[in-house]
Amino acid sequence: MLNQYPLWKYILLVVGLLVASIYALPNLYGEDPAVQVSHRTKSLTDEDKLLIQQTITGKELTVKSIELKEGHALARFDDTETQLRAADALKENLGKQYLVALNLAPATPGWLRALSAAPMYLGLDLRGGVHFLMEVDMVAAIKRLEESLLSDIRSTLRDEKIRYRGVRRDDQGLHISFRELEHMEQAAEELPRVFRELEFIEKQDTLTLHAKLSEAAIRNEKKSALQQNVITLRNRVNELGVAEPVIQQQGDSRIVVQLPGIQDTAGAKKILGATATLEFRMTEGTRSDWLDAEQNGRTPLNSILYYERDGSPVLLNRRVIVTGDQIIDAASTFDSQKGTPAVSVRLNGKGASKMGDTTREHIGKPMAVVFIENKIETKKVGDTITKHRTTTKEVINVATIQGQFSARFQITGLESQEARDLALLLRAGSLRAPVEIIEERTVGPSLGRDNIEKGFFSVMIGFVLVLVFMTVYYRGFGLIANVALTANLVIIIAVLSLLQATLTLPGIAGIVLTVGMAVDANVLIFERIKEEVKNGNSPQASIHSGYEKAFSTITDANVTTLLAAIVLFTLGTGPVKGFAITLSIGIITSMITAIVGTRAIVNLLYGNREIKKLSI
Amino acid sequence: MSQTAVQSKQKALINFMSKRKLALVFSLVLMLISLGSIITKGLNFGIDFTGGYLIEAGYQYDVDLDRVRSALAEAQFKDAQVQNFGSSKDIIVRIAPRADINKATIGDNILAILKTTSDKPVEMRRVEFVGPQVGDELRDDGGIALLVALGGILIYISLRFQLKSAVGAILALVHDVLITVGVFSLLQLEFDLTVLASILAVIGYSLNDTVVVLDRIRETFRNIRKTSAEDILNISINQTLARTLVTSMTTLLVLLALFFFGGEIIHGFATALIIGVIIGTYSSIYIASSTLMLLNIHKQDFLVVAKEEVVDDAP
């Protein structure tokens, strides 16, 4: 008999739809305002949970629930006001080893969460937040490596007692010059053994040894610069207190940073892109020497001319005592005597012993703190793109060493916001190479809300319009197609929720478009059935051949659309990708619901019985 | 199956093919206008492709745009473009990439200036910055995406059908894309990433439509003997006409919902697709089939598979 499905097919369809409904369900529950608490170094325990509980209830605030997940705690609240007050209380009470961040947590009931069902992951254009694309300045990273190799080469030559005239670095690489051929040959033998990452070429005519980084070394350096920067950025983002941030490598020189729900974007940008660090150096000469050096532009052999913030000149020793890399902890505070903003720092072992030695030897002499910031900016003039690098070095403070100190001390001479930012930067570690923000997309919270509402509304309107149209045009069969279309929408949402693919506004547009195009398969089938009926075939035979003949057409038509969607996915970025994802999922699910789904209902209604007329 | 053919022939046929010369001229004119406009006026590229800054801000009452413009001009933003966005309370400020502005603070600077133009709070709704290198990349990637999509489709259709059909389908595609982009150029609507995405969706849709018609043409060629190619094309188009119109109708319904209720950001996207769907519906009727006529399509083109079919068809 025609038009009958075996029982297992019905069971499969019903079970499939049921599963889809369950996984689509979390989207119906809203979100709770929440506060996320984590610790800098450890996972939170039940003890911390208790402490959080007490802190919140101590302020007479009501908390809906507190749960521990993946090492952090999540406290849910009824409204945003309680959330904000609780966050303030927690920040105050828990101490600076804890990170407190505001969050919106899905209010998915426990039994659904047990099935690991979760709502769709909303993109930044829907929930509000900042998206940054940063480019790591690889040229600077390589330069930095070459410079450190340069000083290593110098000391190796000294240790090996090989006499040389000078070493320098330019865009071609490193150049080591000699007075005697014999010395150069000695060096050419010795250096490659120590510096495997360099390739050496002897230039007899100029008595120079030319050294270049090998391809592998450059690749390695780029890779580690990128990874190091990702780690530093992650530390900085954690310091900012952002829940669910995304920090990812993209390509071989870029990093994507996404901070959902952040309000102070300017502050975030400043912190993320900052390359600020410190150097400690002894001063050279007297104040009048400094003024002389500025006036006639000549500096003594072992010193460099710097400027203080007020523009007055300072001569500093070429030798750096301690750099910012050796600072392991920093906090902004106030100077106990003068009450001015200060940063208290702690050095690692190596830094502490160097600082200890220096201060012991130089009691009563002035030491300077140099603030260094690298900036890079890409500009486009006409069709040429150029990168501008600027390095700002300024002396923020010159103070007389009162007594010996090593690991812990204070730096003054900063504004209070500067002190806070610098402390954060020193804590989070410095960037291996400067980064530049090359793309930013910030969506305010109200626009995000608007986008969701409008997106949802237009899906509903479009959906209802199509339902009405199909019912009017195809009557009974139209209703069947509508059931399939509804199932299709549920399945798309379930698949998106399960994949946790990012839903963006163009993604919603993709769903809307899918709703319009999903009925196409049914239209093709129904028109075929109509034709068959007109050609004088029995209703049963018409249904059968209608589905059969339309099948290859439907496949051809959908494969081509899918092709376009896949191209879009592989070549598109961000929001466009979201569109490609929903469109692709929609095409695939609509083929299932429109062909198998409607057929099941048609078979159930019409199969295995006498029919005179089809409602089509 | 020749019974189908006889039945179909008895149906009142719309003689689409008799007007194909007229349609061809009509399409050519549209394409020439589009091309001319794209060459002379160009496209109004959004910051996705040009690079630059975009700030959307919400006021609490209708904005006096001139006041905003002069406030911005005073603060060294003479080149700022200020427009209403969606409603008379929302504005959008666009600034071309410039050497002398610090991008880290530009959004806040602009917002601070906007706040001076109103005594009620002004709310930041959106800030976008696209660096020059990203803009160029997005444009190149977009172009590549279009070409790859067209190439992939040409190959798929050549394999599934044959070259003449593929040429017809691609011409229909080029026709649809060119005219859709042409409308954007003529009206100087903003062309951004989402519009590019919807152009690719137009490709998918237009193809979908054309493939359905081609599929039917192939089937009719195989089933009906001793009929002119023109008649066969006419029959096929008529048979698929209801489907073509119904699907376009449902798609247009949802697109109109998106156009009217989806919000300002998605406007360009919906506009491109609406134009694309209308043009695509027309082109699937006329362009692909007219091309087949021009390429002198005949029965043998669809019988490349095997000789047995010829044997099967023999009386």
Report what the structure shows.
The complex is a heterodimer of chains A (616) and B (315). Chain A has 616 residues and is α+β, with helices and mostly antiparallel strands. Chain A has 4 domains: 7-25 and 444-606, Multidrug efflux transporter AcrB transmembrane fold, CATH 1.20.1640; 30-107, ACT domain (Alpha-Beta Plaits, 2-Layer Sandwich); 139-218; 274-442, Gyrase A, domain 2, CATH 3.30.1360. Chain A has 16 helices and 22 strands. In chain A, the strands form 6 sheets. Chain A has a 5-stranded antiparallel beta sheet with strand order 14-15-13-18-19. A 4-stranded antiparallel beta sheet of chain A has the order 2-3-1-4. In chain A, strand 16 and strand 17 form a beta hairpin. Chain A is elongated, with a radius of gyration of 34 Å. Chain B has a 4-stranded antiparallel beta sheet. A two-stranded parallel sheet of chain B has the order 1-6. The longest helix of chain B has 33 residues, at 229-261. With 315 residues, chain B is of the alpha+beta class. Chain B has 2 domains: 2-45 and 134-313, Multidrug efflux transporter AcrB transmembrane domain (Multidrug efflux transporter AcrB transmembrane fold); 52-130, Alpha-Beta Plaits. Chain B is elongated, with a radius of gyration of 25 Å. Chain B has 11 helices and 6 strands. The two termini of chain B are 13 Å apart. Strand 21 of chain A pairs antiparallel with strand 5 of chain B.
Cα gyration radius of chain B (Å): 25 Å
Order of helices and strands of chain B: HHEHEHEEHEHHEHHHH
CATH superfamily of the largest domain in chain A: Multidrug efflux transporter AcrB transmembrane domain
Tell me the radius of gyration of chain A.
Answer: 34 Å
**CATH class type of the largest domain in chain B:** Mainly Alpha
Q: Percent helix among the residues of chain A? A: 40-55%
CATH topology of the largest domain in chain B: Multidrug efflux transporter AcrB transmembrane fold
Please supply descriptive tags for the structure shown above.
heterodimer; A: 616 residues; alpha+beta; Multidrug efflux transporter AcrB transmembrane fold; Alpha-Beta Plaits; 4 domains; 5-stranded antiparallel beta sheet; 4-stranded antiparallel beta sheet; 16 helices; 22 strands; elongated; B: 315 residues; 2 domains; two-stranded parallel sheet; 65% helix; 10% strand; disordered N terminus; disordered C terminus
